[in-house]
Amino acid sequence: MDYPRITTAIRPQPRDVASVKGIAWGAVATDINNDGLMDLFVANDMVASFLFANRGHGKFEEIGLQAGVGYSADGRVRSGMGTDSADYDQDGWMDIFLTDVDEEMFSLYHNNRDETFDDFSVSNGIGMKVRTMSGWGVKFLDYDNDGNMDLFIVSGHPDNKVSQLHSEIKYEENPLLFRNLGTGYKTTFENVSDQGGPVFARQFAARGLAVGDFNNDGGADVLMILKDGAPLLLRNNVGKLNHWLGIQLKGKVANPDAVGQK
Predict the structure, then answer these.
(1) Three-state SS for 200?
(2) Residue 139 near residue 88, CB atoms below 8 Å
(3) Tell me: the pLDDT tens digits for 48-88?
(4) Is 175 exposed, middle or buried (0-12, 13-18, 19+ CB in 10 A)?
(5) Contact 204, 154 (CB under 8 A)
(6) Residue 7's CB: how many other CB atoms inside 10 A?
(7) pLDDT digit string (tens) for 160-190?
(8) Residue closest to 96 by CA, chosen among 46, 30, 182, 189
(9) pTM for this structure?
(10) CA distance 42 to 29
């Protein structure tokens, strides 16, 4: 006797973030699917990167592989270091940027609006410019207050003897500033580091950065974290030249200074 065949699609069950093991160097919280819940992207070193989709009630589903962000475009694991997230092309969906070490290519992951991403790093004018670099800190910021999210990247190779083996790879590297040209879906980035001031002509073994308007003049400033050196604070002299809006937040019940708000 023939019986009807029953096929059941098995979907991974949401689980605790701690149940997935990695070698993490960077992480960013971002809402990839516009459901109002913060998801988590984790940059891992020599194992696949993680993308934890927040399914609510404290449960997360790790979807890095099927989302297209776990591996490089050619299916390789990478030495993921820094990461950040922003809607760089203003289509209403959050995208992701990932830095890694030399010869691995940084990734600009464009959100396809269905919990998958495509790597646009080459077509957006960034990938080949950073191929020999080892990126650590990366931040989206609108440095010139034109409404488009630009990119600031600091880098430096992990091995201070690397140039003895590879002359084209340096231990200390220049910081990079990429200006978002604001062309929608096909947005490209222009390397404007040579217009950014004397600091971009210097080389550093940088390991991280933070962004904030430390003097409240409307321009996003940058703090670079250096290996074996004091932090370097860069004052933005461009952003204040365009229109900007400052808001002071106050909590009514608790947290009177609204700490943690973005």
Answers:
(1) helix
(2) no
(3) 999 999 999 989 999 999 999 999 888 889 999 999 999 99
(4) buried
(5) yes
(6) 4
(7) 998 888 888 999 999 999 999 988 778 899 9
(8) 30
(9) 0.88
(10) 9
